[in-house]
Amino acid sequence: MVLRPTGEPCDVCWVFSMIRHISGIAEVVADFDSAVKFYTDVLGLSVDTLSEGAYATVDIPGVLHYGIWSREAAAEATFGDALAADRIPLGFSVGVEVDDVGQTHSEMSAAGTAFEHGPRTEPWKQVTSRFMSKSGALCELSSTPWSRTITQQMRASEE
Fold it and tell me: Considering the entire predicted model, what is its pTM?
């Protein structure tokens, strides 16, 4: 049994003990090219486009993974159909790293979480399962053992 910060027992707090860390944050956007331009030209950040018009990573000091995700690409990854883009909310998507996506998926499902898809291995070998948060944000359980180490020092952008 996991305890709340107040010391009281919490029946569903077990899920927090499964989460290793926030694995990534991505902004889901309607206009991918404009978003990339904003991050590079306005914010002055380095952007690496991994899939043209679909997904890019942004190098932000102190952040493990920050992405720009086109709404259509998010729909394809979540529902298997880019035409389901209207089912993907614009805004931010949050991924959490867990040791076992299948086990966490099963336990969260038993606790009432409705998943958009069950555990599956993505083409880049990451295991994922996606669901919508209570506020409607797209969320992801992931298992990515090879990226669990921070490879750069935490630093302010002016250092």
Answer: 0.76
